[in-house]
What we know:
A: mainly alpha; 77% helix; B: mainly alpha; flat
Amino acid sequence: MEIPYIVDERPDTGLTNGKLGIWLFLASEVMLFGALFSTYIILRTGAVEWPYGELNVWLGMANTFILIGSSVTMVMAWASLKMGDWAKHRLYLILTFVLAGVFLVNKYFEYADHFARGETPSHSTFLAIYFTLTGLHGIHILGGMAVMAYFIGPGAKLWKTNPGQFTNRIESTGLYWHFVDLVWIFLFPILYLL
Amino acid sequence: MSSHSIDDVKKSIRTYWMIGAALFVFTVITVAVNQVHLAVPAAITVALIVAATKGSMVASVFMHLAHEKPWVLWSLLLTVVFFIALLFLPILTTMDHIGTPVHAPSAIGGAGEAH
């Protein structure tokens, strides 16, 4: 039996089932990160002193540029599919994947530098919440990369049999990826600049 | 079929690149303001305003929220309500005084005030 409303929109919601599903998932993600942002506020307002300038602002800024760039390439990967340009879609999706990888490599060097100086999560309240927030965000980057790798690799053949469904899957992947970018847009100032 | 027509997507390409460029500029502004070393309340206000602006640009343009169906918008509105509650409820619990020891007035002072 074929799953209904994966290409066409449901008459009652005006959405495909996949799109409604990814938005509800993102709503739950908002609550997950919201709980941690709330924790950050409580820890910070309750702290006698809060470290300033402990993180490398320029590396954080570079990672912000990388994630913003990856959001642009991701939306272009979807737009290229909508216009039927498979080659451009592949280029933009691979670019997004590479940018995500570069982000994680930067994060690895940042983490390695902290650990080399003995700055582990147990070192201070600031580092505890820093590693928790950026660690969870990093796991989301990894998750996004796994999905992109699937659509660059074995999942790509769906385009030949059901292009509408494939395009919707890329749209859902993009919605997730933009959310990951959005979280970083708030993490960067609260952890690196304030 | 999906609600995004090919013509709509073609028209949006330029917007995507422009929004990307604007996000780069706003990031530079955030870091530049940080280098000025404002007072903490002002720095927090500016940083959060810029971050909220950038976030709304990503959500409305890249995630197409500006043209999204009511089902998505209402679900997100409900999420925003819960998100605000999640941010403020724990803060309110630290502000209450339940369980805080109440110090009775001293015997001398208390007696003096009573009579």
